[in-house]
Amino acid sequence: AHSFDKLKARGFWSYVGVTMLNFIRLRSFHAEIKIPGEKTISEDLFVLTVANTRQFGNNAFIAPDAVPNDGMLDIVMIKPFPKILFPIFIYRLFAKKMNRSRYFSHLKTAKMVTISTDETRFHIDGEPVIINGEVKIEIRRNALKVLKTRYNKFK
Fold first, then answer.
1. What is the pLDDT of residue 95?
2. pTM for this one?
3. Which of 21, 42, 48, 140 is the most buried (most CB within 10 A)?
4. Bigger pLDDT: 13 vs 28
5. Rounded distance, CA 142 to CA 139, Å?
6. Please, are residues 112 and 106 in contact by the beta-carbon 8 Å criterion?
């Protein structure tokens, strides 16, 4: 999100170019994820996503099992993997099969999630932000009302 925000040109191919460049430079980071009363996870990761829906956008499905109206947060962790596997990673991302990778792990919770990491670059719904210190994320069930029309496919 931080790199894409600096681009003058938008669209799918710009996104592809920035993604490839960032993947080449990608280094793992350490994160501690706490879910009160459930567990604490301490991992080195390439990607950490807390989602309430399945995709980033442009049909890239990072959390293929997420349901937007179930009141749950989906925590997706991608562990460091050999960079030679990048094409397979991309295939799985767009084929809704990310969860078939041994480098993928996933948790669901309705509780607040606290993330501690030295990484400060985050994005919230695609918008780049800098956050120092702990990050606390919670979901509010039924907080967003969506109008169903004949043009969308919500159930």
1. 93
2. 0.80
3. 48
4. 28
5. 9
6. no
Helix (H, G, I), strand (E, B) or coil at 52: coil
Q: Which residues share a beta bridge with 114?
A: 34, 136
Q: Over the stretch 86-120, which tens digit does the pLDDT of each residue have? A: 889 889 988 999 999 999 999 999 999 999 999 88
Letter string b/e over residues 29-67, b meaning 16 or more CB atoms within 10 A of that residue's CB: bebebbbeeeeebebebbbbbbbbebbbeeeebbbbebe
Structure tokens at 6: 């600096």
* Of 41, 37, 29, 31, nearest in space to 112 by CA: 37
C-alpha distance from residue 95 to each of 1, 13, 149 (Å): 22, 18, 27
Q: Minimal CA–CA distance to 47: which of 72, 27, 18?
A: 27
